[in-house]
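Worked example 3 (structure in, sequence out).
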């Protein structure tokens, strides 16, 4: 399924992201996923990353059908922060190896 980001609304500390789920031969599905905006600050993740994180969560939820509302939670943010930190370490290691190789 492909996702089309349709925007968001904010109600107090909750951001509500809206997507359309598109699959060939199927009707368009309107999907909503909620996020506590405090989690962005807590995990030092940019708000601009919200739609990407939500799309990944929706893909996961729809792959393993989840009953009820879709919500980006603390576990999702921790997983993203860990993956980001690992990628940064790997990039730094690659730069060090590149500089250490004789010309």
């Amino acid at each position: 399924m492909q996702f089309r980001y349709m925007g968001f609304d904010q109600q107090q500390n909750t951001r509500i992201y809206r997507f359309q789920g598109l699959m060939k031969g199927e009707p368009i599905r309107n999907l909503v996923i909620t996020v506590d905006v405090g989690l962005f600050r807590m995990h030092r993740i940019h708000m601009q990353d919200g739609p990407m994180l939500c799309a990944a969560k929706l893909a996961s939820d729809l792959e393993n059908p989840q009953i009820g509302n879709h919500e980006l939670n603390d576990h999702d943010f921790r997983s993203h922060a860990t993956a980001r930190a690992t990628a940064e370490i790997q990039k730094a290691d690659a730069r060090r190896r590149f500089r250490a190789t004789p010309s």
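Notes: The longest strand covers residues 2-11. Helices lie at 38-42, 50-63, 74-100.
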